[in-house]
Amino acid sequence: MFQNVEAAPPDAILGLVEAFKKDTNPAKINLSVGVFQDATGQTPIPKVVTEAEKRLLESETNKAYKPITGDPEFGRLVQQLMFGESHEIVTSGRAATAHTPGGTGALRVAADYINKVHSGSAIWLSDPTWANHAPVFKAAGLDIKSYPYLDRQNNCLDFQAMLEAMQNVPARDVVMLHGCCHNPTGVDPNVEQWAQVAKLLAERGALPLIDFAYQGFADGIDEDAAGLRELANHCYEILVCSSFSKNFGLYNERTGAFTIVASDQPTAANVISQVKACIRANYSNPPAHGGAIVKIVLSDPDLKAAWINEVADMRNRINDMRTLLVDTLKSKGVEQDFSFITSQRGMFSFSGLTKDQVDKLKNEYAIYIVGSGRINVAGITEQNIDTLCDAIAAVL
Ligand code: LMR
User: Fold this and answer.
1) What's the CA-to-centroid distance between 36 and ligand 1, angstroms?
2) Which of 274, 270, 304 is nearest to 117 (CA)?
3) Which ligand 1 atom lies nearest to the CA of residue 184?
4) Are 291 and 321 found together in one domain?
5) In Å, how far from its chain's centre is CA 323?
6) How far is the CA of 390 from the centre of ligand 1 (A)?
7) Is 246 a catalytic residue?
8) Ligand 1 atom 4: the closest Cα is on which residue?
9) Model-level pTM?
10) Is 124 a catalytic residue?
């Protein structure tokens, strides 16, 4: 049976990590996958995570299965983080959350739920979007549509084009928006624009799905939820896929959440029962460890405050590297204006480098960047900045 199986192409992002690991060039630089690195190029475990793990080790009494949707307390804390502690969505019980294996797991659960319960609803993705969005939704059997997002000439949001496309979204289709730190562009709508989009989607009868993987990486934990909270002022049904890979550094613990917001508590209970059926037929119930860490940190005011500071440190380092990149390119005589990089938000910079230039950077300089020209700014350090900018200057 296996004799005629052809090899699949490498993954657009994780395939680069595999190639990077095999590269023997001592000057190699990995700016591909979205993983935070500190000034020494290491991916640190946040101190609050280590502390929570210590407490967990001392208090854990068994490894019995979690409920299909995970620990209910984890779900409540996730809702509070997204909407604010005393938000009506949290206190009314018209939201329900499932702890999922990572943000990607949350997306797949969302996709399975849509396919099973709202069959015929297509999903609209921004152009461009995360390289794995379409494969996840396609794998679940959904039709993929796209709406324009980026004004590539001016490196900013093409809001008019985005709104025009959304005017044609049929009722009951699902529209994905990135909660903050749009991946790959780093370009986000402002709160007024969120309000306009929200009103339009509500008017059209479309269902918003928010991919919320970078809360805290743009302006702050609460600040980064402003778009989602504005959306909730206009749309009473929402899906949210959260990830704690980046803001808790829990990449390999696969810790995420899928939240459904409905008009009232009984409706939410019906919807989550369908979500549970999708999960049971997929991975049965979630891996406990990462969710337990998030729960310990978010439920202890001191640990939570320390976590907010650690996220701020990560955010500030990335922003410093944005400035360093722009300044160093300039100092090396690069005439092309890259100043837009300092106004992009989150982990990534959509550099404007072409596919050819990206290939040259990889093949001639061992610098790994995603094919779209997306740079993981967190991979830049004071040690590699000169090598990086010399190579960019050369390929330009
Ligand atoms: C990324 O965009 O690099 C991250 O979300 C990691 C991944 O799984 O692709």
Assistant:
1) 11
2) 274
3) 2
4) no
5) 23
6) 26
7) yes
8) 34
9) 0.97
10) no
390, part of any domain: yes
Mean pLDDT (10-residue bins), the chain, 396 residues: 96 95 96 96 97 97 97 98 97 98 98 98 98 98 98 95 97 98 97 98 98 98 98 98 98 98 98 98 98 98 98 98 97 94 94 94 97 94 97 96
**60 belongs to a structural domain:** no
Phi, psi of 117 (to 5 degrees): -100, -25
Answer with the one of 248, 268, 299 that is the final residue of a domain: 299
3-state secondary structure 326-374: HHHHHHCCCCCCCHHHHHCCCCEEECCCCHHHHHHHHHHHCEECCCCCE
Token pair in block for residue 86: 């005393």
CA-nearest of 180, 300, 310, 299 to 248 is: 310
Residue 279 lies in a domain: yes
> How distant, in Å, are the alpha carbons of 11, 15, 355 from that of 8?
9, 11, 21
Say which CATH number the domain at 259 has: 3.40.640.10
User: What are 356's two structure tokens?
Assistant: 């050819």
Boundaries of domain holding 260? 65-299
